[in-house]
Specification:
Blueprint: E1 8-13, E2 20-23, H1 24-33, E3 36-41, E4 50-57, E5 63-71, E6 74-83, H2 86-97, H3 100-107, E7 113-114, E8 128-133, E9 138-142, E10 147-151, H4 154-157, E11 173-181, E12 187-192, E13 204-217
Antiparallel strand pairs: 1-2, 1-3, 3-4, 4-5, 5-6, 7-13, 8-9, 8-13, 9-10, 10-11, 11-12, 12-13
Helix pairs in contact: 1-2
């Protein structure tokens, strides 16, 4: 059954009050009406870890969004951004809050597992992970095989929330020479095989915007996932 615009897709609350369901059509109004408001997913996350977005007004008429995880030890803010208008703030919060099923379809895993450790990003030494960044970039990284696949254009933009620009060789597998940085709340940095003229380029370095989500994906290179 197709979801209607009025169907609840998130829970919202003003700090100190109870959570209540909200549909897509209500979100901009809720953001505009409150000096500070929080949002969380409906039924996607485990009881132990919840994705939270805190939206506050800035002095210039825009909005500040803090992306966080609520867990047994409290709340960990991984990154923040700003939006010039309520509709842009809604797009950013939805990318973080309701993206898990969309990402699961893109990655071919209907129940992807969020990777989050309140003491820091878990050390990633093998297996396969999926990334969602602040700009909407969606990547698959096979750490065991040192390969990268970026779903940056057609697939990502098939969902209105994701609006990443297209880059050379999107959708193709690219060899990773070095995984320079992969951590929640920071840009992912990849040193890749040369993507330009091989006579002029030794390696290509790509840096994403801040990483919002890291998902553990099944991978043939990881025996536990076969």
């Amino acid at each position: 059954m197709k979801r209607r615009e009025s169907d609840p897709i998130v829970l919202s609350r003003v700090p100190g009050e109870e959570w209540s369901p909200a549909g897509r059509m209500q979100l901009a109004m809720l953001i505009q009406a409150a000096a500070e408001i929080e949002f969380q997913a409906v039924g996607d996350d485990s009881a132990a870890t919840r994705r939270i977005v805190v939206v506050t007004r800035d002095p210039f008429g825009g909005y500040v969004l803090q992306f966080a995880f609520d867990h047994a030890g409290g709340r960990t803010i991984t990154t923040k951004t700003s939006a010039r208008s309520a509709p842009l703030a809604v797009a950013d919060l939805l990318a973080y809050i309701v993206s898990l099923r969309v990402l699961g379809r893109i990655f071919g895993d209907e129940t992807p597992t969020l990777m989050f450790d309140p003491n820091g990003t878990p050390e990633l030494t093998e297996g396969k992970v999926g990334l969602l960044t602040l700009s909407g970039t969606i990547c698959e990284v096979d750490i065991s095989r040192m390969e990268l696949r970026r779903h940056g254009g057609r697939l990502a933009q098939s969902h209105a929330t994701f609006r990443a620009n297209q880059l050379r060789r999107d959708g193709e597998t690219i060899k990773v020479i070095r995984l320079a940085q992969l951590q929640l709340g920071k840009p992912a940095i990849f040193v890749l095989e040369p993507l330009g003229d091989p006579w002029m380029t030794v390696v290509t370095t790509r840096m994403t915007t801040n990483v919002l989500l890291i998902l553990k994906l099944p991978s043939p290179s990881n025996p536990a996932d076969r």
